[in-house]
Fold:
Amino acid sequence: MKKLFFSSSSFGTDLALLLLRVGSALMMITHGWAKISDFSARLTTFRDPIGLGPALSLQATIFAEFFCAILLALGFMTRLSLIPLIFTMSVVTFLVHADDPFSIKEKALLFLLIFFVQFLMGPGKYSLDAQIRKRRGGY
Structure:
């Protein structure tokens, strides 16, 4: 019982990173897919918080929320794929919902926190990045 509650094993850490990585990525993919599915309608109403134009802002958001989230779920190019996700969630939190109450920006802020922690921790042992590193002689 002590081992379960007071151990900080590598297995537990790597399993936690896997669950956090896959879970957050799958939840983010649903946001990206909704934007892809309704692209034409969203194009006319999508905000342009950093001045790229609504079309490019929507495309960049889809790239992060859908395609980078797929890479994150796989654990492939993990830290690189997290950069657009962190940027997107920062824009959503601090620009798009800047004047909104905390309850509105809370979800984006939570994703931002999760993605930032994953960036610091890395993909963990159960990822494609780790498998590639192992085959190259590292890890």
Observations:
- The chain has a mean pLDDT of 92.
- Helices lie at 2-6, 10-37, 39-43, 54-74, 78-96, 102-121, 128-135.
- DSSP finds seven helices and no strands in the chain.
- The first helix runs from residue 2 to 6.
